[in-house]
Amino acid sequence: MVTMRLLNVNVNVILKINFVNGKMQKIIISCRPEYLGSDYQKRFFPQNGKKGFQELTIKAFSETEVQQYIAKYVQNKRHLLDWSEDTYLQQIKRIPKDLVSNPILLKITLIALPRFTKQQKTTQINRIALYDEFLKTWFDRAQDRLYKIHKTNKEEEAFSNLNINDFTESCLQFSKNFAAKMFIDNNKVVITYNSNWATFLGNKDIENSLLRFSMPLIRRENQYWFLHKSLRDHLIAQALLEPNESALNTALFNKQSFVSEHGVRQFLAEHMYQKMETFKPQLLSFIETSKKDDEVQIASANAITILTQVDVLLDNLNDANISGADLSNKIFNNLQTERAKLNQVNFQNTELKNANLRSSFLQSADFQNAKLQNADLRGSSFQNAHFNDADLSFADFRNTILQDVNFKNANLRNTSLQNACIKNADLTFADFQNTILVDIYFQEMSTENVNDEIYNVGYCYQNGVGVEKDEQKAFAYYQKSAEMGNASGTCSIGYCYRHGIGVEKDELKAFIYYQRSADMGDANGMCNVGYCYQNGIGIEKDEHMAFYYYLKSAKLGCYGGMYHVGYCYRNGSGTSQDFKKASEWLYKAKTNKCSYETKPYTEDCLYESKCLVPQIPINDVEFYGKFGEGAFASVYLARWKSNGLTQPIVLKLFPKLKENFSEENFSEVNAFK
């Protein structure tokens, strides 16, 4: 067992630990799992799959643990504190629980809380207020340290200038500028010193050196980062607002996306809640401008993301460019986004019922587990989009481009995919029941376990199930399913060629497609190959090959194959005659008949099944009564014991079987049933 208490940890760590059993294990510790991305667990599965993978979450501080932490905090810093443990415990009750359940937030709160009380602040304490007070307290202490330490004459002069201009405010502005540059520089968390950072990290400007000394930074060799990432996020959020938080910093808003920065978004959302009327019109302006100017795409995506986070849900985004935005976990039913640019937008777990996304660009958009029932998606482009587990029932995909799209486990029932281009898509476990698949272009498909949906469409057209019977369409859908690697569809094409269904009759092609399906492991295809060998259909007659394929199909559960194996054993066709094996296989065929209902094309193999009467060894029969007697035979009631089962039978015994046997004898037996 490994017990951990993590404080001030701001990294993802991979540790290798040798356990008692001698196996090398890996432990991945992360204090920011949201940065690992969705479905991150799969990336850490062992080579044998999910087996052996465990995920543990360190619980938030309980009330008891908060009290214990406060006790230790006061004990360790008693000489620096004006408050007692009891005072902290009383004042902490003013703080929302979510702001003290995290050890970093709790420490920040304990540092900032006395300042709140001293200044008799009555405003509600929130995350922004806590971080503001923490930074002011930090800068005040830094100022005290600078007063006490030895300084050069130039440092003394620079320090005096900073004090004249409000030392704390200067530190705060310097810290915001530093965080903003981290944000612009690809959202960096750790900075490695180079010439681009000389203004902040160089030593030529003495005032800046003193300000850097006063910041809550950690330095290791030539690398710098904030004491905790949440401090960086708080300062970035402040930098995105103009001075006095009266407007948005338009230039910075369009410099870099903060969509993936959940901490920054959380702070901005709190600012939005406090000043909704101030910021909302400016955010809407970014989105409106993006309809005519793609240069504001970043600002537009940032704007719609933060509006969505504070539940300001828009219903008309026609022509907007919000590529890269996060609209996940919200309800956008009836949303209008016609001709919009929605590339890489996150729609995970979002409801988009009856939405209009016609003629839009949605490359790499993520619709995982989204609900798009009745959505109008006509003419849109979905390259590399993900629809895993999405509900797309009754959606309209006509004339869409679906290249490299992932439909794994998606519900596509009753959708229209007419004229769509589906290239290299993953349709694993997708449900295509009643889907319109007319004139679709399929290429390089990944179709493992597609549930035979396209094949089933062909079956419905062939047999008039839920649709008007159309043998040519049936053949077309069988061809589509065969092109996608579906063994049943391939076998069905053979059946169509064999009987001239939707295509000109061609026995050679029938055998070719039966053979292909058999090579793909299809039991019905094997049975039909056997039938072709037995009867010389598209191939030279070969009873031994017929028996070989019948037996293969029978062992895979094909009841037609079982019948024919019994037939071959009874007549010695392609194998040695064996009445006992004949009766066993014929009995299996009877008891497994249910499998035939879903595979209609085995009927090719059952052309004589009604004439197959099993040969029953006399030792397996128990007579218990004479039913009747005629001129040539006697009829008895008996029990047939086989394979552990007993069933009643009627036997007609012919004293001179070879002289008197005829087809009429079978009808006489049937009359007694």
UniProtKB/TrEMBL annotation:
- One matching Pfam family, short form? Sel1
SMART domains in the record, alphabetically?
SEL1
Q: Which domain of life is it from?
A: Eukaryota
Q: Which InterPro entries match?
A: 5peptide_repeat (IPR001646), Kinase-like_dom_sf (IPR011009), Mitotic_Regulator (IPR052945), Sel1-like (IPR006597), TPR-like_helical_dom_sf (IPR011990)
Which PANTHER family does this chain map to?
A: ACTIVATOR OF C KINASE PROTEIN 1-RELATED, CHITIN SYNTHASE REGULATORY FACTOR 2-RELATED
The name of this protein is Protein kinase domain-containing protein
Organism, by scientific name, is Gigaspora rosea
